[in-house]
Design a protein that fits this description.
Elements lengths: L1 E8 L2 E4 L7 H14 L2 E9 L18 E5 L11 E5 L5 E7 L6 E7 L5 E7 L5 E7 L2 E6 L3 H6 L9 H7 L11 E3 L9 E4 L27 E8 L2 E6 L8 E6 L3 E3 L2
Antiparallel strand pairs: 1-2, 1-10, 3-4, 3-5, 3-11, 5-6, 6-7, 7-8, 8-9, 9-10, 12-13, 12-16, 13-14, 14-15
Length: about 260
């Protein structure tokens, strides 16, 4: 993956020439703390001009009058723009968005107590994805896409603050009552997760899997189940049977986002 370090000016991102700083470890420690705390789960849903919840196969904020945050949802009847996770003080600390047809991962974003972005993993396709780390007004990005794609800025649609999230989706983001409480860590065998990489390995610290291994292969955003855990590595398989072996292989824990 290519690496770029950026300076953040609200939602406008400009390339800089700084050397890598401590952005990565500072962000990952805060992300780990968020995943260890009890979080309340809620859903951001579109509402039409008559006040009715909307079901849209391909949803966008411009297609609704505003959005509400609800504690429960029936995906057969209502579209969810995102799953929101609140801390005990009612602050949004994490969001997960997937494609509106209920498919693969689109992005995951973590926020600090002030509502500023800490970390995000995001994609436009299974081959074009990136990981963004933000700390002290600097952003460090690892990305798999070309320089042209980067300069066209497809990553900028990530909501860089919870204030921006509220404005884009026309919602006050107030945490509803009776939200279910979840925690993401520690991970366990049997947990479901999104793949946040397109690389899988034959064993922990082993070689990359190739097509001759007759395994399913990794793609960004795929839904998997954890079959085994060895240190900082997980052996995973897809939740749906594929044409070949459904086993993906081993991926690093940091390349998984647990689904709750």
């Amino acid at each position: 993956m290519r690496t770029i370090l950026l300076t953040l000016l609200l939602s406008v991102v400009a390339i800089s020439a700084f050397a890598q700083t401590n952005t990565y470890p500072e962000c990952t420690s805060q992300v780990e703390a968020i995943n260890k705390m009890p979080l309340r789960i809620a859903y951001l849903v579109p509402v039409d001009s008559l006040g009715k919840y909307m079901y849209l196969e391909f949803a966008a904020p411009s297609m609704c009058d505003h959005s509400d945050v609800v504690a429960d949802i029936d995906y057969r009847q209502v579209t969810s723009f995102a799953t929101l996770y609140y801390d005990e003080k009612g602050r949004v600390r994490k969001t997960i968005k997937w494609y509106s047809d209920g498919g693969d991962l689109n992005n995951v974003v973590y926020y600090d107590e002030q509502g500023n972005i800490l970390y995000a993993v995001y994609a436009s396709t299974s081959e074009k994805y990136g990981k963004l780390y933000s700390c002290n007004s600097q952003i460090h990005i690892n990305h798999s896409f070309s320089e042209l794609d980067f300069r066209e800025g497809f990553h900028i649609w990530i909501n860089m603050t919870t204030e921006n999230l509220a404005n884009v989706y026309k919602s006050d983001l107030k945490m509803p009552e009776n939200c279910k409480s979840v925690t993401f860590l520690p991970i366990k065998i049997g947990d479901r997760a999104f793949l946040c990489t397109n690389r899988a390995y034959i064993s922990p610290n082993g070689r990359l899997i190739n097509k001759d291994d007759n395994m399913a292969g990794a793609y960004f955003g795929g839904r998997v189940v954890i079959d085994d855990i060895k240190g900082d590595w997980c052996k995973v398989r897809y939740t749906l049977i594929t044409e070949s072996d459904e086993t993906v292989g081993y991926v690093r824990v940091e390349d998984l986002e647990i689904i709750k």
